[in-house]
Amino acid sequence: MTIPFIAVEGPIGVGKTTLSRSIAESQNFQLLKEIVEENPFLSKFYDDIEAWSFQTEMFFLCNRYKQLSDIKKEILSSNTPVVADYHVFKNLIFAKRTLEQNEYEKYEEIYKILTRDMPAPNIIVYLYASQETLMKRIALRGREFEKNMDPAYLTQLANDYEMFINIFEEANPHIPVLRFNGDHLDFVNKKEDMEYVLTSIVEVIQGVQER
User: Fold this and answer.
1) C-beta of residue 4 within 8 angstroms of C-beta of residue 29
2) What is its EC number (predicted)?
3) What does the alpha-carbon distance between residue 29 and residue 81 come to, in Å, rounded to a whole number?
4) 182 is annotated as contributing to ligand binding
C-alpha cells in the first residue's frame, strides 16, 4: 500500500495552509507547514526584490531541506501519511522569477544537490485564483511584510505557477494533480466548498493507497 504524501500548492494568498490544515485534521495526517514569517530577509525582499532575492531563496531552500529530511527519517519511515502546504519545487518557481541568470544557475545546482533522494509528494493539490482574489486574501491575513507586495509581481507569480504546474503534470503523469479555482470556491469561509474539496481529495487518496 502506498502511503499518501500530499502537497498543496499555488500562489501567495490562495489558501494553501487553511486547506492543508483541514486535510490533516479530517484525515489524521501529519501536517508539514512552510516556514515563512521566520525568514529574516522577507520584509527586505518585498522592499527590494533584486537586492535580497538570493538570501531569501537560500533561507527557504535550507529550511525546506531540513523539514523534508525530518519527514523522511521520522514520519514517512513509520508509514504516517503527510500533507504539506508546499512542494519543494516552488523554490525553482520563485528563484527563476527573482534571481539573475548567473545566480539562478548557482542556486539550481544547490537545489539539485539538496533535494536529491528527498521524499516526493505523490498527490498534488493545485489552488489558483485571480489577482483580485489573491490580493484580498493577502490583505485579510494582515502580514506586515506582505503590505508592500507589488500586485504585478503577484500576477507574474501566478502565471509562473500555472506554467510550472502544466509542465509538472506532463512530466509526471503517474502523480495525480487536483486543481481548484479559488475564485469559484471559497473553502476558507464556506463549509460546503470545503466539504466539496475534501471529498474530491479523499477519492484520490483512496486511489493512491490502493496502488
Assistant:
1) yes
2) 2.7.1.113
3) 5
4) no
Closest among 55, 64, 127, 116 to 91, alpha carbons compared: 64
Q: Which of 47, 70, 85, 150 is catalytic?
A: 85
Give the residue carrying C-alpha cell 518585498: 46
Q: Output the pTM of the full model.
A: 0.91
The verdict on whether residue 191 carries a ligand-binding annotation is no
Domains assigned to the chain: 5-209 (3.40.50.300)
Give 120-174 pLDDT, tens digit per residue: 899 999 999 999 999 998 888 878 777 778 889 899 999 999 999 999 999 999 9
Residue 85 among the catalytic residues: yes
Cell of 201: 481529495
Strands 30-32 and 5-9: unpaired
